[in-house]
Amino acid sequence: MKAKNKHEPQRQSPAPSAASLTHFRTLLANHMAKKGLRQTDQRKLIVETFFNSANHVSIEELLAEVRAKDPRVGYATVYRTLKLLTECNVAFERKFGDGLTRYELADEESHHDHLICVECQSIIEFEEPRIEEIQEEVAEKHGFRLLSHKHEMYGVCASCQAKMNRAAGSR
């Protein structure tokens, strides 16, 4: 699985299925109806761009993608739309300790965890069944019924380690 560098977004997980996107669109439409919000062209563009963007996209990255299609879209509109997506459980808000808030599709069927490089901020998604089993065992041992969790591990990626080793060797 490829790492995502904050300057070069890449989709790490498979693109969401048509059924997932239909489900997400329905969740959003129902939420907007409850709040009395209407579907504007700009909001629709932002949502569809988000659905097709890289995982862990920041507001700034999404704004750049949206503005490539419609330069009139403002930062506040993207921000409010992402907040709507998180309110209705279409997106998850992620903070990986670098000061940026990132967003990813809330696809519970595709659960994954994260390795975050503290040097280059690359994010690697991974799935590990043993971790899932252990956390269930720990929760059960303590009388917890897990509703959700997030697992993030911070360190230095192989590429940054190699750069550090080369730099240390050239001294």
Describe the fold and architecture:
A three-stranded antiparallel β-sheet has the order 1-3-2. The chain has helices at 18-35, 41-51, 59-69, 75-87, 129-141, 158-169, and strands at 57-58, 91-95, 101-105, 113-117, 123-126, 152-155. It folds into two domains: 16-108, Winged helix-like DNA-binding domain superfamily/Winged helix DNA-binding domain (Arc Repressor Mutant, subunit A), CATH 1.10.10; 111-171, Ferric-uptake regulator, C-terminal dimerisarion domain (Dna Ligase, domain 1, 2-Layer Sandwich). It has 171 residues and is an alpha+beta fold.
Task: Jot down its keywords.
disordered N terminus; 2 domains; 6 helices; Arc Repressor Mutant, subunit A; alpha+beta; about 170 residues; Dna Ligase, domain 1
Which helices and strands occur, and which strands form pairs?
Blueprint: H1 18-35, H2 41-51, E1 57-58, H3 59-69, H4 75-87, E2 91-95, E3 101-105, E4 113-117, E5 123-126, H5 129-141, E6 152-155, H6 158-169
Parallel strand pairs: 4-6
Antiparallel strand pairs: 1-3, 2-3, 4-5
Helix pairs in contact: 2-3, 2-4, 3-4
What can be said about this structure in brief?
The protein has 171 residues and is an alpha+beta fold. It is built from six helices and six strands, in the order ααβααββββαβα.
